[in-house]
Amino acid sequence: DAGVTQSPTHLIKTRGQQVTLRCSPKSGHDTVSWYQQALGQGPQFIFQYYEEEERQRGNFPDRFSGHQFPNYSSELNVNALLLGDSALYLCASSFARGITGELFFGEGSRLTVL
Amino acid sequence: AQKVTQAQTEISVVEKEDVTLDCVYETRDTTYYLFWYKQPPSGELVFLIRRNSFDEQNEISGRYSWNFQKSTSSFNFTITASQVVDSAVYFCALSEWANAGKSTFGDGTTLTVKP
User: Fold this and answer.
1) Are A92 and B101 in contact (CB under 8 A)?
2) What is the dihedral of CA A78, A88, B27, B109, to 10 degrees?
3) What are the tens digits of pLDDT across the range B22-49?
4) How far apart are CA A37 and CA A44, in angstroms?
5) Of A90, A50, A88, A47, the residue nearest A72 (C-alpha)
6) In chain A, which residues have their Cβ closer than 8 Å to the Cβ of B47?
7) Which residues of chain A does B95 touch, with a Cβ-Cβ cutoff of 8 Å?
8) How far is the CA of B72 from the CAs of B24, B32, B57, B66, in angstroms?
């Protein structure tokens, strides 16, 4: 049973570019939550997708957007990249928005913006 | 708004010592979840424990134990007889009862266990 998978694992972009990160949730999970983890800090909630819609959003600008597909996989898009967007981006999956309290994380996509 | 504070940024112990990682949280919710995660250098957050707000029983799992005190809004984590493999960053987190997917994390405690 595959857990949460994310791609790519590492990528380097330059300021102003756009990036797309991908996440496949754990089998049986229908909710995907995205987190940004800057170096030396805890993960911060970006947004959550459930039933192909954004259900909750953290304190992130509109440059951060996402999508959820019918197979529950999800994409995180960041436009007009800034140096401060350099971070580990974590995807977490759960069932029904985590109502059972179970949350599984992927290994993350490490983004470096030069 | 929810908040999690892990006052200890770094802790260093010698193997076989016991170590306690502190976590204090703030929330206006009456029901919620509390979590501890371990993050090795690979980056993946490894789930260690989940507690719901109405279950204040302490829990022990092997060398790990957790002390949840609602009166002081604390959820501390103790590793008994620490091992080098315990070296990692440990995060405490808090979520809404109906949405564990939206969790608030502390800034983590880096634990180094020296041989």
Assistant:
1) yes
2) -160
3) 999 999 999 999 999 999 988 889 999 9
4) 6
5) A50
6) 103-105
7) 98, 101, 103
8) 8, 15, 15, 14
